[in-house]
Amino acid sequence: MHFSLKMLKFGCFMGLDDKLLFWLIDLTYSKMKRIAYLAVVLLVLVGCKKEPQVQKVSVTGITLNPTALSLPEGGTGTISATVSPSDATNKLVLWSIDNSAVASVSPEGTVKALEMGTATITAKSDDGGLTATCTVTVKARVPLTGISIDPTSLTLTEGETGEITVTFTPANASYKTLSWTSSDPSVATVSEGTVTAIKSGKTTITVTSEDGGFTAKCEVLVKVWQAVDITGITLSPNPLEVRLAETEPAVITAEITPANATNKALLWTSDDESVAKVSPDGTVTAVHFGDCRITAKADDGSGVEASCWVHILPPLGSVDMGIRMTREDGTKYNLFWAETNLGTTYPNIPGDYFAWGETEPKEKYGWSNYKWRNSESGPFSKYDPNSSDENVNKSVLDPEDDAAHVMLGSKWRMPTDAEWAELVNKCWNKKYENSGLKIHASGDNGSQGEYYIFLPDGGYKSDNKTHEDICMYWSSSLDTSDPSTARSLVFFNGFNAGTYSTNRSYGCLIRPVYED
After folding, report:
1. Which long-range contacts (CB under 8 A, 24 or more apart) does 415-418 make?
2. Which H helix or E strand runs over 255?
3. What is the rounded distance in angstroms from the CA atom of residue 108 to the CA atom of residue 90?
4. How many Å apart are CA 351 and CA 507, to the nearest integer?
5. Which among 355, 374, 388, 464 counts the fewest CB atoms within 10 Å?
6. Global pTM?
7. Tens-digit pLDDT profile for residues 427-444
């Protein structure tokens, strides 16, 4: 009706004919009734639309944990039930017991022991009626007769913690529940025997047993916190040698005294960063050959410091002796020989001595202190071709047992027996002079006679004695016919150099090589 009046006013305003105006009103009203009717039908249809059905997931199994439970009289325990699958629609579990005089069970699986005896608790799934059981044994209650604690007095510094342990009498008492209190929680608090010092003062920690109400006390003294200054710094290694461009950055480690120093931070400096730089963690990076001093100073204001001399050595030079070798797979490689022995930077100095397969020099050389054998006739723990153990049955040194590789890193290693033999057999003008063997290049590198290496005659060592009558240089190759020996280059004045078998425990020299 309200709409018709609006249409009538609109028609009068527009000057429409009366018949035309009433026809428009009738037509519009009819259409509105149809639209309203269709809207009602649509709402009914939507309201009647069925919700999609959820697929039911049935229970296929049920398990209990534990399946056996032992409790003292008056004690409680919990049994948990797991329904399979985990997405089962109905996970309801119904609990029952076959002997309610012995124990009871709640709808949540909580068991309470009533009297001595045995009972079976059954959990049954509401969906499918699947069951699982737990056997409950109720034993006689063992009453607690007393408790004691250790320590009975405790001194802490503000912020520290301490532990109090409790001993029960008898040890097999049925109930060992305890409660802990502090007479002054502002001084120290306690939780399950752990005491935390808050501020200076005194407090009494009391522990009380639930069974019998027995108590024990610990007197706690909290002292004011005081910083512990560093009193000493020891740097290692000291001195430190780093070869320029041939090794990874070295690290100086610092041992701080006392071990409980409050602030252990150190300030690292180099007195010549054109030679070496040092990072905040003591890592040394070589810049140029020369010497400098690295200093670590305590950052706690104590003024304690320690210094380490660092020697940056020139890059280890190498010589192309014209040696071309063939690998087992048939590929070729060039062999380059270091200009100096291992352990020295001077061509005419013998350097360090090593037992075969060891990576550090030592004072005495013999079977008694040999790494891979502890007696002259005992078995070898590595590098024995007679062993059935693949980790022992090896005839060439592993990189971790190759002194040249360990000390120089990267590409360097000890030469093999075949490489030594190729050097002495192929290179010309081998001459003993100036207490050493001078070997000229073979000429395959296009410079016959121009390049050479000098092998200083340093003899060899056994026990703690140096033998100067004969000089030996290790190879990385074991003598497979006699595992107590390894192959080495042998020479002395007036004797042609050659490769021979040498006692593995002897201290011999090493000339590093690398292949390219």
Report:
1. 415/335, 415/337, 415/475, 415/476, 415/511, 415/513, 416/475, 416/476, 416/477, 417/475, 417/476, 417/477, 417/487, 417/499, 418/325, 418/477
2. strand 253-257
3. 16
4. 11
5. 388
6. 0.47
7. 866 778 878 998 888 755
Is residue 303 within a helix (H) or strand (E), and if so which, with residue range?
none
Among 130, 514, 133, 113, smallest CA distance to 325 is for 514
Q: How many Cα atoms occupy the beta-carbon half-sphere of 515 within 13 Å?
A: 14
For 41-67, write each residue's pLDDT tens digit: 454 444 544 555 678 999 999 999 999
The Cβ of residue 396 has, within 10 Å, a number of other Cβ atoms equal to 15
Which residue type occupies 120?
A: T
- Sheet containing strand 276-278, strands side by side: 250-251, 283-286, 276-278
Please give the structure tokens belonging to residue 186: 């502002």
Q: CA separation (Å) from 372 to 86, 396, 417?
A: 58, 14, 20
Check pLDDT > 60 for residue 467. Answer: yes
DSSP sequence for 383-446: S-TT-S-TTT--SB--GGG-HHHHHH-TT-BPPPHHHHHHHHHHS---EE-SSEEEEE--STTS
Number of alpha carbons in the 13 Å side-chain half-sphere of residue 19: 0
Asked if pLDDT for residue 323 goes beyond 60, the answer is yes
According to the model, what pLDDT value does residue 317 have? Answer: 83
CB atoms within 10 A of CB 345: 17
Residue 369 reports pLDDT greater than 90: yes
* Three-state SS annotation for 150-218: ECCEEEEECCCEEECEEEEECCCCCCCCEEEEECCCCCEEEECCEEEECCCEEEEEEEEECCCCCEEEE
Query: Taking a C-beta distance cutoff of 8 angstroms, is the pair 498, 438 a contact?
Result: no
**18-48 vs 2-14: helix crossing angle, rounded to 10:** 150
The residue among 203, 236, 205 whose CA lies nearest residue 221 is 203
Q: Is residue 406 packed enough to be buried (19+ CB in 10 Å), middle (13-18) or exposed (0-12)?
A: middle
Listed in sequence order, the residues at least 6 apart from 229 whose beta carbon sits closer than 8 Å to its beta carbon are 261, 262, 298, 300, 301, 302, 304
